[in-house]
Amino acid sequence: MKPMLRRINFFLLIVIILVLVNSIASYSQDQKYQRGAQYFLGTDDQLLIKVNIWGFVAKPGQYLVPSDTDLISLISFAGGPREGAKLSNIKLLRAKETEDKKNKIIDIDVNKYIKNGEEKLIPRLQPGDTIIVSGSTWYHINSFLSFITKIATLAQIYWWIVYYSSK
């Protein structure tokens, strides 16, 4: 009976490890939101610029947009913000053409724009800009707790199997 119990425990350990690896992979890469297609907007005589948007938008990726596009329009092209997006602290990384070759980082509070409608709060995009929309703290806490719950459930199932197989 003991060798059979060891085989069952070894098998369960392998299953738990595979489930954990799968959970970690799905936690780190959200399959629900795929990369967005590149948009070619405007007429033949309209100048398009290449910009990037990453993070908590429905379709992150690289977009070709009209040269007069602002941040709100780009977020809209990307399908809008996802649930859990932190709109109060969006980062714009702008390539700076200076001798020190350092990028400029601009913090943008879209919530403030939504509240009072001041257009000066929303910058116009320039070629090569990268927009980063991060997740809120609550979203990350919720995701972490969901992951811990999965681990605890697997541990409890394993404990039940060991406990009832030893009786």
Describe this structure in words.
It contains four helices and five strands, in the order αββαββαβα. With 167 residues, the chain is α+β, with helices and mostly antiparallel strands. α1 runs antiparallel to α4 (137-165). The radius of gyration is 24 Å and the shape is elongated. It starts with a helix and ends with a helix. Residues 35-41 have low confidence and may be disordered.
How does the SSE layout of this entry go?
Layout: H1 2-28, E1 48-55, E2 61-66, H2 71-77, E3 90-94, E4 104-108, H3 110-116, E5 130-133, H4 137-165
Parallel strand pairs: 1-5
Antiparallel strand pairs: 1-2, 3-4, 3-5
Helix pairs in contact: 1-4
The H/E string reads HEEHEEHEH
Largest sheet: 5 strands, mixed
Dominant shape: elongated
Low-confidence stretches: 35-41
CATH topology of the domain at 48-131: Outer membrane lipoprotein wza fold like
Largest sheet, spatial ordering of strands: 2-1-5-3-4
The CATH level-2 architecture of the domain at 48-131 is identified as Roll
Q: Which superfamily, in CATH terms, is the homologous superfamily of the domain at 48-131? A: Outer membrane lipoprotein wza domain like
Distance between the termini: 11 Å
> Oligomeric status of the shown chains?
single chain
**Total of DSSP H or I helical runs spanning 4+ residues:** 4
Can you count the beta strands? 5
CATH C-level of the domain at 48-131: Alpha Beta
Q: Indicate the structural class.
A: alpha+beta
**In what range is the share of β-strand residues?**
15-25%
Mean pLDDT: 81
**Helix content class:** 40-55%
* Radius of gyration from the alpha-carbon trace, in angstroms: 24 Å
